[in-house]
Give the backbone structure.
Amino acid sequence: MIKQKWLGFWVSVAVAVIPALLWVSFTPIRNDALAKITALSALSLLSFLIILSGRLPIFEKLFYGLDALYKAHKNISAIVIMLILAHSSLLTFKYLQISDVSAFKFVIPSTEIPLLLGKFALYIMVTLVVLTLYFKIKYQWFVLSMRVMGCMIFLSGYHALFVAGSDLTQNVPLLIYMVAIGASASAVYVYKSLFHGSFMKTYSYKIISIRKRHNVFDIVMSPVGKPLNRYAGQFAFVTFASLGEGNESHPFTIASASTDEHLRFCIKNLGDFTNSIGQLKVGDTAHIEGPYGYFSFSKIPHKKQTWIAGGIGVTPFLAMAQSLPTGYAVNMYYCVRNKQEAVFLDELHAIADANHRFNVTAHFSDSAGQISAKTIHTRSSNNYLICGPQSLMESLKTDLVALGTPKQDIYYEEFAL
Amino acid sequence: MIKKVLAGCIIIYALFMGFVVIKGGLKDQKNENSSVSSNTSVSKPQTQPTTGTSSAAKKSYTLADVSKHAATSDCWIVISNGVYDVTNYVDQHPGGAREILRYCGKDATIGFNTKGGRGSHSNQAQAALADLLIGTIK
Protein backbone atom coordinates (compact mmCIF):
# COMPACT_ATOMS: atom_id res chain seq x y z
CA MET A 1 0.00 0.00 0.00
CA ILE A 2 2.88 2.35 0.80
CA LYS A 3 4.28 1.57 -2.62
CA GLN A 4 1.00 2.47 -4.20
CA LYS A 5 0.99 5.79 -2.33
CA TRP A 6 4.21 6.68 -4.15
CA LEU A 7 2.93 5.65 -7.55
CA GLY A 8 1.30 9.01 -8.21
CA PHE A 9 4.49 10.80 -7.22
CA TRP A 10 6.60 8.80 -9.65
CA VAL A 11 4.12 9.25 -12.48
CA SER A 12 4.28 13.03 -11.91
CA VAL A 13 8.07 12.91 -11.98
CA ALA A 14 7.93 10.96 -15.26
CA VAL A 15 5.56 13.54 -16.77
CA ALA A 16 8.10 16.26 -15.96
CA VAL A 17 11.18 14.32 -17.04
CA ILE A 18 9.98 12.68 -20.30
CA PRO A 19 9.93 15.90 -22.38
CA ALA A 20 13.33 16.86 -20.97
CA LEU A 21 14.80 13.50 -21.98
CA LEU A 22 13.21 13.67 -25.42
CA TRP A 23 14.56 17.16 -25.94
CA VAL A 24 18.07 16.21 -24.85
CA SER A 25 18.10 13.07 -27.02
CA PHE A 26 16.92 14.68 -30.24
CA THR A 27 18.12 18.29 -30.13
CA PRO A 28 21.74 19.44 -30.04
CA ILE A 29 22.56 20.96 -26.63
CA ARG A 30 22.84 24.73 -26.72
CA ASN A 31 23.34 27.48 -24.23
CA ASP A 32 19.58 27.88 -23.80
CA ALA A 33 18.96 24.15 -23.19
CA LEU A 34 17.85 24.67 -19.59
CA ALA A 35 15.40 27.39 -20.60
CA LYS A 36 13.80 25.04 -23.13
CA ILE A 37 13.72 22.06 -20.78
CA THR A 38 12.08 24.00 -17.94
CA ALA A 39 9.42 25.26 -20.36
CA LEU A 40 8.69 21.79 -21.75
CA SER A 41 8.47 20.23 -18.27
CA ALA A 42 6.19 23.04 -17.15
CA LEU A 43 3.88 22.60 -20.13
CA SER A 44 3.83 18.83 -19.69
CA LEU A 45 3.01 19.17 -15.97
CA LEU A 46 0.37 21.82 -16.67
CA SER A 47 -1.33 19.37 -19.05
CA PHE A 48 -1.08 16.68 -16.38
CA LEU A 49 -2.69 19.03 -13.83
CA ILE A 50 -5.65 19.58 -16.11
CA ILE A 51 -6.01 15.85 -16.71
CA LEU A 52 -5.91 15.28 -12.93
CA SER A 53 -8.60 17.88 -12.34
CA GLY A 54 -10.93 15.73 -14.45
CA ARG A 55 -11.31 13.43 -11.41
CA LEU A 56 -10.87 10.32 -13.52
CA PRO A 57 -11.15 7.16 -11.41
CA ILE A 58 -7.81 5.85 -12.65
CA PHE A 59 -5.95 8.87 -11.27
CA GLU A 60 -7.72 8.62 -7.94
CA LYS A 61 -6.38 5.07 -7.74
CA LEU A 62 -2.93 6.25 -8.76
CA PHE A 63 -2.74 8.79 -5.94
CA TYR A 64 -4.64 6.62 -3.48
CA GLY A 65 -7.57 8.88 -2.80
CA LEU A 66 -8.91 12.08 -4.25
CA ASP A 67 -7.77 14.04 -1.21
CA ALA A 68 -4.18 12.93 -1.83
CA LEU A 69 -4.61 13.70 -5.52
CA TYR A 70 -5.68 17.27 -4.73
CA LYS A 71 -2.74 17.69 -2.40
CA ALA A 72 -0.43 16.54 -5.19
CA HIS A 73 -2.27 18.90 -7.56
CA LYS A 74 -1.44 21.84 -5.31
CA ASN A 75 2.23 20.91 -5.09
CA ILE A 76 2.53 20.31 -8.83
CA SER A 77 0.93 23.74 -9.53
CA ALA A 78 3.60 25.35 -7.38
CA ILE A 79 6.31 23.44 -9.26
CA VAL A 80 4.82 24.48 -12.63
CA ILE A 81 5.04 28.13 -11.58
CA MET A 82 8.64 27.70 -10.45
CA LEU A 83 9.54 26.08 -13.77
CA ILE A 84 7.87 28.87 -15.77
CA LEU A 85 9.65 31.53 -13.72
CA ALA A 86 12.93 29.68 -14.31
CA HIS A 87 12.21 29.51 -18.05
CA SER A 88 11.53 33.24 -18.25
CA SER A 89 14.50 34.13 -16.02
CA LEU A 90 16.93 31.94 -17.97
CA LEU A 91 15.90 33.49 -21.28
CA THR A 92 16.15 36.98 -19.83
CA PHE A 93 19.57 36.07 -18.49
CA LYS A 94 20.62 34.93 -21.98
CA TYR A 95 19.70 38.33 -23.42
CA LEU A 96 21.33 40.06 -20.47
CA GLN A 97 24.63 38.51 -21.56
CA ILE A 98 24.21 40.20 -24.96
CA SER A 99 23.25 43.57 -23.54
CA ASP A 100 21.08 45.19 -20.90
CA VAL A 101 19.01 46.77 -23.65
CA SER A 102 18.29 43.51 -25.43
CA ALA A 103 17.21 41.94 -22.10
CA PHE A 104 14.98 44.96 -21.51
CA LYS A 105 13.49 44.60 -24.98
CA PHE A 106 12.86 40.92 -24.29
CA VAL A 107 11.09 41.58 -21.00
CA ILE A 108 8.74 44.40 -22.06
CA PRO A 109 5.55 43.49 -23.95
CA SER A 110 6.48 42.70 -27.54
CA THR A 111 4.60 42.77 -30.81
CA GLU A 112 5.36 39.11 -31.46
CA ILE A 113 2.04 37.39 -30.70
CA PRO A 114 3.29 33.94 -29.56
CA LEU A 115 5.78 35.59 -27.21
CA LEU A 116 3.17 37.97 -25.91
CA LEU A 117 0.77 35.08 -25.22
CA GLY A 118 3.49 33.23 -23.31
CA LYS A 119 4.11 36.25 -21.09
CA PHE A 120 0.39 36.75 -20.65
CA ALA A 121 -0.03 33.10 -19.55
CA LEU A 122 2.84 33.46 -17.09
CA TYR A 123 1.39 36.52 -15.37
CA ILE A 124 -2.12 35.06 -15.20
CA MET A 125 -0.90 31.77 -13.78
CA VAL A 126 1.30 33.42 -11.15
CA THR A 127 -1.60 35.65 -10.10
CA LEU A 128 -4.04 32.74 -9.84
CA VAL A 129 -1.69 30.46 -7.97
CA VAL A 130 -0.85 33.25 -5.51
CA LEU A 131 -4.58 33.93 -5.03
CA THR A 132 -5.48 30.29 -4.43
CA LEU A 133 -2.45 29.27 -2.38
CA TYR A 134 -1.97 32.26 -0.13
CA PHE A 135 -5.45 33.70 0.23
CA LYS A 136 -8.57 32.06 1.53
CA ILE A 137 -10.97 32.57 -1.32
CA LYS A 138 -14.54 31.36 -1.69
CA TYR A 139 -14.98 27.91 -3.21
CA GLN A 140 -16.73 29.25 -6.32
CA TRP A 141 -13.85 31.69 -6.92
CA PHE A 142 -11.46 28.82 -6.47
CA VAL A 143 -13.32 26.80 -9.10
CA LEU A 144 -13.34 29.81 -11.46
CA SER A 145 -9.60 30.37 -10.93
CA MET A 146 -8.90 26.77 -11.80
CA ARG A 147 -10.99 27.11 -14.94
CA VAL A 148 -9.05 30.20 -16.07
CA MET A 149 -5.83 28.40 -15.16
CA GLY A 150 -6.87 25.49 -17.37
CA CYS A 151 -7.38 27.93 -20.26
CA MET A 152 -3.69 28.77 -20.07
CA ILE A 153 -2.90 25.43 -21.70
CA PHE A 154 -4.13 26.91 -24.99
CA LEU A 155 -2.04 30.07 -24.68
CA SER A 156 1.10 28.23 -23.59
CA GLY A 157 0.58 25.53 -26.21
CA TYR A 158 0.40 28.17 -28.95
CA HIS A 159 3.42 29.93 -27.46
CA ALA A 160 5.44 26.68 -27.41
CA LEU A 161 4.62 25.80 -31.00
CA PHE A 162 4.99 29.15 -32.71
CA VAL A 163 7.33 31.34 -30.72
CA ALA A 164 10.49 32.29 -32.65
CA GLY A 165 13.30 30.00 -31.64
CA SER A 166 11.00 27.09 -30.79
CA ASP A 167 12.36 23.84 -32.11
CA LEU A 168 9.42 21.76 -30.98
CA THR A 169 8.28 21.12 -34.53
CA GLN A 170 11.71 19.79 -35.52
CA ASN A 171 11.84 17.12 -32.84
CA VAL A 172 9.17 14.64 -33.91
CA PRO A 173 9.14 12.32 -30.85
CA LEU A 174 8.93 15.34 -28.54
CA LEU A 175 6.26 16.95 -30.71
CA ILE A 176 4.19 13.75 -30.60
CA TYR A 177 4.50 13.52 -26.81
CA MET A 178 3.64 17.20 -26.23
CA VAL A 179 0.72 17.17 -28.65
CA ALA A 180 -0.63 13.93 -27.10
CA ILE A 181 -0.54 15.18 -23.52
CA GLY A 182 -1.68 18.68 -24.50
CA ALA A 183 -4.59 17.35 -26.56
CA SER A 184 -5.66 15.02 -23.73
CA ALA A 185 -5.60 17.95 -21.34
CA SER A 186 -7.58 20.14 -23.75
CA ALA A 187 -10.16 17.37 -24.20
CA VAL A 188 -10.58 16.96 -20.43
CA TYR A 189 -10.79 20.73 -20.03
CA VAL A 190 -13.43 21.23 -22.71
CA TYR A 191 -15.48 18.25 -21.50
CA LYS A 192 -15.34 19.25 -17.81
CA SER A 193 -15.47 23.04 -18.01
CA LEU A 194 -17.53 23.79 -21.08
CA PHE A 195 -19.88 20.81 -21.10
CA HIS A 196 -19.82 20.17 -17.34
CA GLY A 197 -19.23 16.54 -18.11
CA SER A 198 -18.24 13.97 -15.55
CA PHE A 199 -16.06 10.90 -15.91
CA MET A 200 -17.94 9.28 -13.02
CA LYS A 201 -21.54 8.17 -13.14
CA THR A 202 -23.96 10.62 -11.58
CA TYR A 203 -26.95 9.59 -9.49
CA SER A 204 -30.19 11.44 -8.77
CA TYR A 205 -31.47 11.73 -5.22
CA LYS A 206 -34.40 13.49 -3.55
CA ILE A 207 -34.17 15.16 -0.18
CA ILE A 208 -36.49 13.44 2.32
CA SER A 209 -35.47 15.27 5.48
CA ILE A 210 -33.43 18.29 6.44
CA ARG A 211 -32.80 19.57 9.94
CA LYS A 212 -30.45 22.05 11.51
CA ARG A 213 -28.63 20.83 14.58
CA HIS A 214 -26.48 23.54 16.22
CA ASN A 215 -24.45 24.75 13.19
CA VAL A 216 -24.78 21.57 11.14
CA PHE A 217 -27.31 20.78 8.43
CA ASP A 218 -28.31 17.13 8.57
CA ILE A 219 -29.73 16.09 5.18
CA VAL A 220 -31.10 12.68 4.23
CA MET A 221 -31.90 11.75 0.60
CA SER A 222 -33.39 8.73 -1.08
CA PRO A 223 -32.39 7.51 -4.53
CA VAL A 224 -34.57 8.36 -7.54
CA GLY A 225 -33.07 5.59 -9.66
CA LYS A 226 -30.17 3.32 -8.90
CA PRO A 227 -28.54 3.99 -5.50
CA LEU A 228 -24.86 4.90 -5.17
CA ASN A 229 -22.61 1.97 -4.32
CA ARG A 230 -19.85 2.92 -1.91
CA TYR A 231 -18.03 1.88 1.19
CA ALA A 232 -18.19 3.66 4.52
CA GLY A 233 -15.98 6.75 4.76
CA GLN A 234 -16.18 7.81 1.12
CA PHE A 235 -17.39 11.16 -0.16
CA ALA A 236 -19.21 12.43 -3.23
CA PHE A 237 -19.60 15.64 -5.20
CA VAL A 238 -23.09 17.02 -4.69
CA THR A 239 -24.97 19.51 -6.88
CA PHE A 240 -28.24 20.92 -5.60
CA ALA A 241 -30.31 21.93 -8.62
CA SER A 242 -32.58 24.28 -6.61
CA LEU A 243 -29.75 26.43 -5.23
CA GLY A 244 -29.11 28.20 -8.51
CA GLU A 245 -25.37 27.92 -8.09
CA GLY A 246 -25.08 26.94 -11.72
CA ASN A 247 -23.47 23.59 -12.25
CA GLU A 248 -21.11 23.84 -9.36
CA SER A 249 -20.62 20.70 -7.33
CA HIS A 250 -19.28 20.48 -3.78
CA PRO A 251 -17.58 17.57 -2.06
CA PHE A 252 -19.24 16.16 1.08
CA THR A 253 -18.64 13.01 3.08
CA ILE A 254 -21.46 10.47 3.15
CA ALA A 255 -22.51 9.91 6.76
CA SER A 256 -24.96 7.03 6.28
CA ALA A 257 -23.97 3.35 6.51
CA SER A 258 -22.69 1.81 3.30
CA THR A 259 -25.56 -0.69 3.36
CA ASP A 260 -28.19 2.06 3.65
CA GLU A 261 -29.59 3.08 0.28
CA HIS A 262 -30.28 6.56 1.69
CA LEU A 263 -27.52 9.12 1.55
CA ARG A 264 -26.96 11.34 4.54
CA PHE A 265 -24.80 14.44 4.49
CA CYS A 266 -23.94 16.45 7.59
CA ILE A 267 -22.80 19.85 6.38
CA LYS A 268 -21.33 22.45 8.72
CA ASN A 269 -22.32 26.01 8.07
CA LEU A 270 -18.95 27.52 7.17
CA GLY A 271 -19.39 30.15 4.50
CA ASP A 272 -21.45 31.33 1.60
CA PHE A 273 -22.32 28.07 -0.07
CA THR A 274 -22.89 26.07 3.11
CA ASN A 275 -25.07 28.93 4.33
CA SER A 276 -27.36 28.52 1.33
CA ILE A 277 -27.96 24.87 2.30
CA GLY A 278 -30.60 26.34 4.66
CA GLN A 279 -32.71 27.23 1.62
CA LEU A 280 -33.07 23.58 0.60
CA LYS A 281 -36.47 21.96 1.01
CA VAL A 282 -37.76 18.42 1.25
CA GLY A 283 -38.36 17.13 -2.29
CA ASP A 284 -35.44 19.05 -3.86
CA THR A 285 -33.23 17.11 -6.24
CA ALA A 286 -29.52 16.48 -5.76
CA HIS A 287 -27.10 15.09 -8.31
CA ILE A 288 -24.39 12.93 -6.81
CA GLU A 289 -21.08 12.25 -8.52
CA GLY A 290 -18.89 9.64 -6.93
CA PRO A 291 -17.98 7.86 -4.79
CA TYR A 292 -14.45 9.07 -4.09
CA GLY A 293 -11.89 8.55 -1.36
CA TYR A 294 -9.89 5.79 0.28
CA PHE A 295 -10.39 6.80 3.90
CA SER A 296 -12.10 3.78 5.44
CA PHE A 297 -11.58 1.16 8.12
CA SER A 298 -12.01 -1.49 5.42
CA LYS A 299 -8.95 -0.24 3.51
CA ILE A 300 -6.65 -0.68 6.48
CA PRO A 301 -4.77 -3.82 7.56
CA HIS A 302 -5.38 -3.82 11.35
CA LYS A 303 -8.77 -4.60 12.77
CA LYS A 304 -7.86 -2.92 16.03
CA GLN A 305 -8.27 0.79 15.36
CA THR A 306 -8.39 4.17 17.07
CA TRP A 307 -10.51 6.82 15.41
CA ILE A 308 -10.09 10.51 16.16
CA ALA A 309 -12.75 12.88 14.86
CA GLY A 310 -12.31 16.64 15.14
CA GLY A 311 -15.54 18.67 14.77
CA ILE A 312 -17.32 18.03 11.47
CA GLY A 313 -14.57 15.50 10.69
CA VAL A 314 -16.90 13.10 12.46
CA THR A 315 -18.92 12.42 9.28
CA PRO A 316 -16.84 9.57 7.77
CA PHE A 317 -16.78 7.92 11.20
CA LEU A 318 -20.59 8.11 11.46
CA ALA A 319 -20.79 6.04 8.29
CA MET A 320 -18.03 3.71 9.43
CA ALA A 321 -19.43 3.13 12.94
CA GLN A 322 -22.77 2.06 11.49
CA SER A 323 -21.11 -0.22 8.93
CA LEU A 324 -18.60 -1.87 11.27
CA PRO A 325 -18.61 -5.64 10.73
CA THR A 326 -17.75 -8.11 13.51
CA GLY A 327 -14.09 -8.67 14.15
CA TYR A 328 -13.21 -4.98 14.43
CA ALA A 329 -12.39 -3.35 17.76
CA VAL A 330 -12.60 0.41 17.68
CA ASN A 331 -11.90 3.13 20.21
CA MET A 332 -13.25 6.44 19.00
CA TYR A 333 -12.50 9.96 20.30
CA TYR A 334 -14.99 12.63 19.33
CA CYS A 335 -13.26 15.99 19.80
CA VAL A 336 -15.36 19.15 19.89
CA ARG A 337 -15.21 22.46 21.72
CA ASN A 338 -18.09 21.83 24.09
CA LYS A 339 -21.23 19.80 24.70
CA GLN A 340 -23.37 21.95 22.36
CA GLU A 341 -21.09 21.15 19.46
CA ALA A 342 -21.18 17.41 20.13
CA VAL A 343 -24.16 17.05 17.82
CA PHE A 344 -23.58 13.40 17.01
CA LEU A 345 -22.58 12.13 20.45
CA ASP A 346 -25.97 10.55 21.30
CA GLU A 347 -25.99 8.76 17.99
CA LEU A 348 -22.47 7.42 18.53
CA HIS A 349 -23.40 6.32 22.06
CA ALA A 350 -26.38 4.41 20.64
CA ILE A 351 -24.09 2.58 18.18
CA ALA A 352 -21.65 1.81 21.03
CA ASP A 353 -24.49 0.40 23.13
CA ALA A 354 -25.36 -2.03 20.34
CA ASN A 355 -21.75 -3.02 19.58
CA HIS A 356 -19.59 -3.74 22.62
CA ARG A 357 -16.39 -3.67 20.51
CA PHE A 358 -17.03 -0.02 19.59
CA ASN A 359 -16.29 2.57 22.26
CA VAL A 360 -16.73 6.30 22.03
CA THR A 361 -15.25 9.01 24.25
CA ALA A 362 -16.09 12.67 23.93
CA HIS A 363 -13.32 15.22 24.37
CA PHE A 364 -14.23 18.86 25.01
CA SER A 365 -11.36 21.18 24.20
CA ASP A 366 -12.96 24.20 25.94
CA SER A 367 -12.48 22.51 29.28
CA ALA A 368 -9.72 19.96 28.64
CA GLY A 369 -7.62 21.64 25.89
CA GLN A 370 -6.70 20.02 22.60
CA ILE A 371 -6.59 16.23 22.78
CA SER A 372 -3.04 14.95 23.31
CA ALA A 373 -1.41 12.02 21.58
CA LYS A 374 -0.73 10.49 25.01
CA THR A 375 -4.47 10.14 25.63
CA ILE A 376 -5.12 8.17 22.46
CA HIS A 377 -1.85 6.29 22.17
CA THR A 378 -1.94 2.54 22.81
CA ARG A 379 1.07 0.30 23.23
CA SER A 380 -0.35 -2.60 21.28
CA SER A 381 -0.39 -2.77 17.50
CA ASN A 382 -3.06 -0.44 16.31
CA ASN A 383 -4.08 1.76 13.37
CA TYR A 384 -5.06 5.40 13.81
CA LEU A 385 -7.59 7.12 11.60
CA ILE A 386 -7.77 10.89 11.99
CA CYS A 387 -10.18 13.32 10.35
CA GLY A 388 -10.56 16.91 11.43
CA PRO A 389 -8.93 20.34 11.20
CA GLN A 390 -5.50 20.33 9.53
CA SER A 391 -3.77 21.55 12.71
CA LEU A 392 -5.24 18.72 14.79
CA MET A 393 -4.27 16.08 12.23
CA GLU A 394 -0.72 17.36 11.91
CA SER A 395 -0.02 17.76 15.62
CA LEU A 396 -1.48 14.33 16.46
CA LYS A 397 0.50 12.69 13.70
CA THR A 398 3.76 14.27 14.84
CA ASP A 399 3.13 13.41 18.50
CA LEU A 400 2.04 9.83 17.78
CA VAL A 401 5.18 9.23 15.75
CA ALA A 402 7.23 10.70 18.63
CA LEU A 403 5.56 8.18 20.96
CA GLY A 404 6.78 5.35 18.76
CA THR A 405 3.87 4.77 16.39
CA PRO A 406 5.07 3.77 12.91
CA LYS A 407 4.11 6.43 10.35
CA GLN A 408 2.31 3.94 8.13
CA ASP A 409 -0.08 3.10 10.99
CA ILE A 410 -1.56 6.62 10.89
CA TYR A 411 -4.19 7.44 8.27
CA TYR A 412 -5.85 10.76 7.76
CA GLU A 413 -8.25 12.37 5.39
CA GLU A 414 -6.66 15.44 3.83
CA PHE A 415 -9.80 17.13 2.86
CA ALA A 416 -8.11 20.25 1.59
CA LEU A 417 -9.77 21.03 -1.72
CA MET B 1 7.06 24.24 2.84
CA ILE B 2 6.51 24.37 -0.93
CA LYS B 3 4.44 27.53 -0.44
CA LYS B 4 7.42 29.25 1.18
CA VAL B 5 9.79 28.15 -1.60
CA LEU B 6 7.34 29.38 -4.23
CA ALA B 7 6.91 32.73 -2.47
CA GLY B 8 10.71 33.10 -2.47
CA CYS B 9 10.89 32.29 -6.18
CA ILE B 10 8.18 34.81 -7.06
CA ILE B 11 9.86 37.57 -5.05
CA ILE B 12 13.29 36.87 -6.59
CA TYR B 13 11.72 36.79 -10.07
CA ALA B 14 9.94 40.11 -9.51
CA LEU B 15 13.16 41.73 -8.27
CA PHE B 16 15.10 40.34 -11.24
CA MET B 17 12.54 41.63 -13.73
CA GLY B 18 12.45 45.01 -12.02
CA PHE B 19 16.23 45.19 -12.25
CA VAL B 20 16.23 44.29 -15.96
CA VAL B 21 13.49 46.78 -16.81
CA ILE B 22 15.05 49.67 -14.91
CA LYS B 23 18.67 49.09 -15.97
CA GLY B 24 17.90 48.18 -19.60
CA GLY B 25 15.20 50.85 -19.88
CA LEU B 26 17.55 53.62 -18.75
CA LYS B 27 20.24 52.52 -21.20
CA ASP B 28 17.71 52.23 -24.00
CA GLN B 29 16.58 55.79 -23.27
CA LYS B 30 20.22 56.98 -23.39
CA ASN B 31 20.89 55.16 -26.69
CA GLU B 32 17.87 56.71 -28.28
CA ASN B 33 18.96 60.19 -27.21
CA SER B 34 22.53 59.72 -28.49
CA SER B 35 21.44 58.23 -31.80
CA VAL B 36 19.61 61.44 -32.55
CA SER B 37 22.79 63.53 -32.30
CA SER B 38 25.22 61.11 -33.95
CA ASN B 39 24.78 58.04 -36.05
CA THR B 40 27.41 55.93 -34.27
CA SER B 41 25.18 53.86 -32.06
CA VAL B 42 25.65 50.86 -34.29
CA SER B 43 29.16 49.61 -33.77
CA LYS B 44 30.78 47.49 -36.41
CA PRO B 45 30.57 43.89 -35.33
CA GLN B 46 33.51 41.53 -35.47
CA THR B 47 33.80 39.64 -38.67
CA GLN B 48 33.15 35.95 -38.43
CA PRO B 49 35.84 33.73 -39.92
CA THR B 50 33.47 30.76 -39.94
CA THR B 51 30.82 32.39 -42.07
CA GLY B 52 31.25 32.72 -45.80
CA THR B 53 33.14 35.89 -46.50
CA SER B 54 34.71 34.63 -49.72
CA SER B 55 32.80 34.78 -52.93
CA ALA B 56 33.95 31.27 -53.85
CA ALA B 57 31.09 29.09 -52.71
CA LYS B 58 28.08 31.33 -53.26
CA LYS B 59 25.38 28.79 -53.93
CA SER B 60 21.75 29.16 -54.79
CA TYR B 61 19.09 27.88 -52.46
CA THR B 62 15.34 27.49 -52.43
CA LEU B 63 13.18 28.99 -49.68
CA ALA B 64 12.59 25.39 -48.55
CA ASP B 65 16.35 24.93 -48.06
CA VAL B 66 16.50 28.06 -45.97
CA SER B 67 13.53 27.00 -43.84
CA LYS B 68 15.53 24.00 -42.63
CA HIS B 69 17.86 26.40 -40.83
CA ALA B 70 15.33 27.84 -38.43
CA ALA B 71 16.95 27.17 -35.06
CA THR B 72 18.94 29.40 -32.76
CA SER B 73 21.89 27.08 -33.29
CA ASP B 74 21.50 27.17 -37.07
CA CYS B 75 19.86 30.31 -38.35
CA TRP B 76 19.66 31.39 -41.97
CA ILE B 77 17.67 34.35 -43.19
CA VAL B 78 16.75 35.80 -46.57
CA ILE B 79 17.13 39.52 -47.30
CA SER B 80 16.37 40.83 -50.83
CA ASN B 81 17.07 37.44 -52.42
CA GLY B 82 20.37 37.02 -50.56
CA VAL B 83 20.76 34.08 -48.18
CA TYR B 84 22.65 34.89 -44.96
CA ASP B 85 23.95 32.55 -42.26
CA VAL B 86 23.54 34.74 -39.20
CA THR B 87 24.06 31.97 -36.60
CA ASN B 88 27.24 33.43 -35.17
CA TYR B 89 26.16 37.03 -35.54
CA VAL B 90 22.91 36.74 -33.60
CA ASP B 91 24.53 37.31 -30.22
CA GLN B 92 26.21 40.51 -31.45
CA HIS B 93 23.18 42.18 -32.93
CA PRO B 94 22.93 45.60 -31.24
CA GLY B 95 19.14 45.58 -31.46
CA GLY B 96 18.91 42.30 -29.55
CA ALA B 97 19.22 38.72 -30.67
CA ARG B 98 15.51 38.17 -30.61
CA GLU B 99 14.94 40.62 -33.45
CA ILE B 100 16.91 38.29 -35.74
CA LEU B 101 15.91 34.96 -34.21
CA ARG B 102 12.27 35.55 -35.09
CA TYR B 103 13.23 35.42 -38.77
CA CYS B 104 15.36 32.23 -38.68
CA GLY B 105 14.54 30.16 -41.76
CA LYS B 106 12.39 32.96 -43.19
CA ASP B 107 12.45 36.05 -45.37
CA ALA B 108 13.59 39.01 -43.26
CA THR B 109 13.67 41.66 -46.01
CA ILE B 110 10.98 43.87 -44.57
CA GLY B 111 12.25 43.43 -41.02
CA PHE B 112 15.77 44.43 -42.06
CA ASN B 113 14.80 47.33 -44.31
CA THR B 114 12.48 48.88 -41.75
CA LYS B 115 14.60 47.91 -38.71
CA GLY B 116 11.55 46.12 -37.35
CA GLY B 117 9.39 49.16 -38.04
CA ARG B 118 11.80 51.60 -36.37
CA GLY B 119 13.63 53.13 -39.34
CA SER B 120 16.48 51.72 -41.40
CA HIS B 121 19.86 50.07 -40.82
CA SER B 122 23.13 52.03 -41.00
CA ASN B 123 25.87 51.53 -43.55
CA GLN B 124 27.95 49.64 -41.00
CA ALA B 125 25.05 47.27 -40.50
CA GLN B 126 24.74 46.76 -44.26
CA ALA B 127 28.45 45.97 -44.41
CA ALA B 128 28.23 43.50 -41.53
CA LEU B 129 25.39 41.79 -43.31
CA ALA B 130 27.33 41.48 -46.55
CA ASP B 131 29.98 39.46 -44.70
CA LEU B 132 27.43 36.84 -43.85
CA LEU B 133 26.17 36.18 -47.37
CA ILE B 134 26.35 32.50 -48.31
CA GLY B 135 24.23 32.39 -51.45
CA THR B 136 21.15 33.55 -53.28
CA ILE B 137 17.59 32.40 -53.75
CA LYS B 138 16.95 30.38 -56.92
Notes: DSSP finds 14 helices and eleven strands in chain A. Chain A has a mean pLDDT of 88. Chain A touches chain B at residues 28, 30, 32, 74-75, 78-79, 81-82, 85, 88-89, 92, 94-108, 110-112, 126, 129-130, 133-134, 164-165, 167, 170 (CB under 8 Å). Chain A has three domains: 2-194, 202-292, 297-412.
